[in-house]
Design a protein that fits this description.
Number of helices: 6
Low-confidence stretches: 5-47, 214-220
Oligomer: single chain
Mean pLDDT: 78
Distance between the termini: 84 Å
Strand order of the largest sheet: 3-5-6-4
Radius of gyration: 26 Å
Number of strands: 6
Structural class: alpha+beta
Length: 232
């Protein structure tokens, strides 16, 4: 009786597996005669999947190179506590319409919470990295991606216009530089974003960023001097 039960269990296990012949490829070292056993109920995970709720404003841009990857990485960052949301205008928006749309994004962001009283406009080809890997944004928790362009000149022009337009906004705009400095760094597409927070959060982030730069330069100089002494 025990042997019969064991035989049934073995047959049930074997029936849940499927034999699939694998064709050899450049990244697969299997030979033509190799057979791989896989579980038949495992879903195919070869291609990346977009988040379940892709904002409608993003969908017209998804055919761009890297766009899907950026959307997925921003979604992953949001799940870790740094909120990145999308509020893109139409693909064929004019420069004046893009600026009007950005005004809407800024006003809505400032009214999002009483904990927000300041903002900063920036551009990046990796908004997810810009928000999480740099000291000056360390204490901020909200970013809105407000424009996407394949042409770096267009995104640089919009940032300059926006900073010039909002710069005199009674201390709420935290931009110091005129804008457009980092537009030609990286790969298309390029993104214009707005980060929001408290004034003290921006100030503390800038102070820590300066300290990090000073420490990094000092460490680099010491290493260079040590290497030079070793060569003498």
């Amino acid at each position: 009786m025990a042997l019969r039960r064991a035989k049934k269990a073995r047959l049930a296990t074997e029936s849940s597996e499927t034999e699939i012949e694998v064709e050899p490829t450049e990244i697969d070292s299997s030979s033509e005669n190799d057979v791989v056993i896989v579980n038949s109920n495992v879903e195919d995970q070869a291609s990346p999947k977009l988040p379940m709720c892709v904002p409608e404003c993003v969908k017209p841009y998804l055919h761009w190179t890297r766009m899907v990857d950026v959307v997925m990485k921003c979604d992953a960052v949001s799940k870790l506590g740094h909120q990145i949301s999308w509020d893109l205008p139409a693909l064929d928006v004019s420069d004046s319409e893009a600026l009007t749309h950005l005004s809407y994004v800024v006003n809505e962001g400032l009214s999002y919470s009483r904990a927000i009283d300041s903002y900063k406009i920036g551009i990046s080809y990796k908004p997810h990295d810009r928000f999480t890997k740099y000291a000056d944004y360390k204490y901020l928790q909200r970013m809105v991606v407000a424009r996407a362009c394949e042409d770096p000149a267009t995104i640089a022009k919009l940032e300059k216009k926006a900073i010039s337009h909002f710069g005199a906004d009674d201390g709420k705009c935290q931009n110091v530089s005129p804008g457009g400095e980092s537009a030609y760094h990286g790969l298309s597409p390029f993104f214009l974003y707005v980060v929001f927070g408290k004034r003290w959060q921006f100030k503390k982030g800038r102070e820590e960023a300066k300290t990090y730069v000073i420490v990094s330069c000092t460490t680099t100089r010491k290493h260079s001097e040590a290497n030079s002494n070793n060569l003498l």
